[in-house]
Design goal:
By secondary structure, this protein is an alpha/beta fold. It has two domains: 2-173 and 213-242 and 280-286, NAD(P)-binding Rossmann-like Domain (Rossmann fold), CATH 3.40.50.720; 182-210 and 243-277 and 297-310, UDP-galactose 4-epimerase, domain 1. The chain has ten helices and 14 strands. It has a seven-stranded parallel β-sheet, sandwiched between helices. The chain has a three-stranded mixed β-sheet with strand order 12-9-14. It has a two-stranded parallel ribbon with strand order 7-10. The two termini are 36 Å apart.
């Protein structure tokens, strides 16, 4: 099978490319930067902006992929507030470009669009695990763009009679993830404190929220399942289904520290959470692919901390 991955140079993309190769598939990558790690791998590399329809069409015509898994996106929420128009362009118009150029070249191909649990937004205020049939209430430009892209590609899929799958992927973490995410920010600060690059004080915000976390390799295994299995078009949650308190995650990571660390509440970070409980239900996903999260959560936390110690 020939698989095309957009956003291949990103955090999840690098893990996914490696896993696809292990499965013995032919692979084509599209990205804008961070592609150097693929130079020695048996993959074809295209440095293409997904807003460049002509370049995308030429790539699709040349490669004729059987599956496209679309990871490329602006995924930083603060950036989406600063540049909402660019966020919509990339996350909505760019996604349409990828699907439409695929349709023009191979309408029988499968299109997997990677979305976000953030699409649920205030719908999570109900305080129970979220299922795919719950009406989304996204609350920032990033999540709005993802929900908009979801709705458009599903309708285009029906119009074109294509197999279109959209994931609502919940929080995932692992070595190589950029700062700006809760587990990464905790690990980065602890590593900096251990190396005396930061005072032994870890400033935190609201720790009372409950969230749903998966290690990155478990998320990738779900994507592999969706690639390799005949799955009906539609929306699928990718999540653990387990509620983890942010404070418990911090306590776990601090317990691994080689030095004593003081936890200090930072008034500037203390924003009350409108959604104290944000957890998914993945029964629908498990009904169509053979998948269960396997990576030990505590080991994952140690892996992230060790990554930042080396960095």
């Amino acid at each position: 099978m020939k698989i095309l991955v957009t956003g291949a140079g990103g955090f999840v993309g690098k893990y996914l490319v490696e896993r696809i190769l292990q499965q013995g598939h032919e692979i084509v990558t599209i990205g804008m930067g961070n592609m150097a790690s693929f130079q020695k791998l048996p993959v074809r590399i295209y440095e293409i902006d997904i807003l460049d329809t002509n370049a995308l069409l030429l790539c699709m015509k040349k490669e004729m992929p059987d599956v496209v898994i679309h990871l490329a996106a602006i995924s930083n929420v603060p950036l989406s507030w600063k540049q909402p128009a660019l966020t919509i362009d990339v996350n909505v118009c760019g996604t349409i470009n990828v699907l439409e150029t695929l349709f023009k070249t191979n309408p029988n191909a499968k299109f997997i669009n990677i979305g976000s649990s953030d699409e649920y937004g205030l719908a999570a205020k109900m305080g129970q695990p979220l299922t795919e049939d719950i009406l989304c209430q996204p609350q920032n430009p990033y999540s709005i763009s993802k929900y908009c892209a979801e709705q458009i590609v599903l309708q285009l899929g029906k119009q074109h009679d294509m197999n279109v799958i959209h994931t609502r992927s919940f929080n995932h973490f692992g070595p190589g993830q950029a700062k700006g995410f809760v587990t990464t920010d905790f690990a980065y600060q602890i590593a900096a404190i251990e190396k005396k690059q930061q005072e032994p004080v870890l400033c935190v915000g609201n720790l009372e929220a409950y969230r749903d976390f998966l290690f990155v390799t478990d998320v990738v295994e779900a994507y592999i399942g969706l690639i390799e299995t005949d799955v009906p078009s539609g929306v699928y949650n990718i999540c653990s289904g387990k509620a983890r308190k942010v404070k418990d995650i911090l306590d776990m990571m601090v317990s691994y520290s080689k030095v004593k660390i003081n936890i200090v509440n930072d008034a500037l970070r203390m924003r009350p959470s409108e959604v104290p409980f944000f957890v998914g239900n993945c029964d629908k996903l498990k009904s169509v692919i053979q998948w269960n999260p396997k990576y030990d959560f505590e080991q994952g936390m140690m892996d992230v901390l060790d990554y930042w110690r080396k960095e």
